Please model this.
Amino acid sequence: MSASPVDTAREHLTEALASLRAACGPGATADDLVAVLAVSEEARRALDRIMVDTTADLQRRGTFGERGYRSPAGALSDLLGWERLEARRRVVAAESVCETVDLGGQVLPARMPATAAAFADGSASLRHVDVIARVLNSEVAARLDPETWAGAEVQLAAQCPAFTPTQLYAWGMELVELLDQDGPQPDDDAPVQINEVRLTRFRKGPGGKITGRYDDAVLFAAIAAVLDAGAAPRDADDERPVPQRQAEALADACAQVLQRGNLPETGGRRPQLVVTVRLEDLERRAAAASLEFGGALSAATLRQLACDAAVVPMVLSSTGVPLDVGRVSRTVPDGLRRAVTVRDGGCAFPGCDRQPSWCEVHHVREWQHGGATELGNLVMLCAEHHRLIHHTHWEVRMANGLPEFIPPSWIDRSRAPRRRPAAHVA
Model:
């Protein structure tokens, strides 16, 4: 059987690298060694371009989403063993210097065409591309009109051969600030005193939208304090945008309040999360369900929700008539949760350092398949990695009393188990 194009390319690349290494042998002159450095940098930039182009192609095809990843950076991190910062850098470059496809299927040109050309000919490195994207995504650059913005992008790309990435960032910020001489528009209107929050459920899909405004400084400060505490980056490589971190922090805070039951009664009952299941779906082992607020649930999401939550299962007939409303039951008692916390110390997924207070407890062997609610069948996971276990081909199992995670075969063909390093005990 003939070798695949990738296997053939790997063979040629191995030969080329061997030749380059041989050029550094004992007989090499100083000029030879300097030339090897220059050629190595050319090769590195060429490989970066290939990786960015490939990442963009996978994004256009929707491959990462099909395999259960919300974020391409998360998929690249797991696949290639990169830190999230490095993965995010490739994703930003792919979105900036490669063609994209809009929701209608139309191919759109690169957002930063001059930078794309510099990246293609090797005069701009991956770090240069990342810096230009940061400058042009800044609040100052966002105030520029499209023509001025495009002109700034051309100037930034032209300076790549002369500046290091750090120098280019400083120069680029000075440039866009100079182009935005007027600054933000002043607001001379007297503010209207409003304190309100609006919840709007999406009619054509799950989820919804929350909008709000607080002119009362005390109320706003209380909310801001909660979001600030929960929205801090998880680590130095957490590249989630601030709005995303704040949105997830708000949801996590609400989930904690629901778990602890520190809410007033509503209509004569404690606040509860109601999951509605049709009778025929229940008979098919809960193929689908819907939330009281927020739309439909898949079976996988329903199983994830049931891992560690107080849930009221409401069974409906085929005509929508309630047939049964179950009792509230807590799947994982507080004492057992504390034991899991002591063992795992937070999210047990390798590379995650989410604190226990922001984590959920997952049944390794699912409850509906006979899994027991006991320490040897429970693992602590943050919301992101809990979803990953339920919705992708990642698996978790217990080995010698500790959780370990098995990646999908497309990430690691050998599917070698991964485990968070144990804390060193002196």
Remarks:
- The chain has 16 helices and 14 strands.
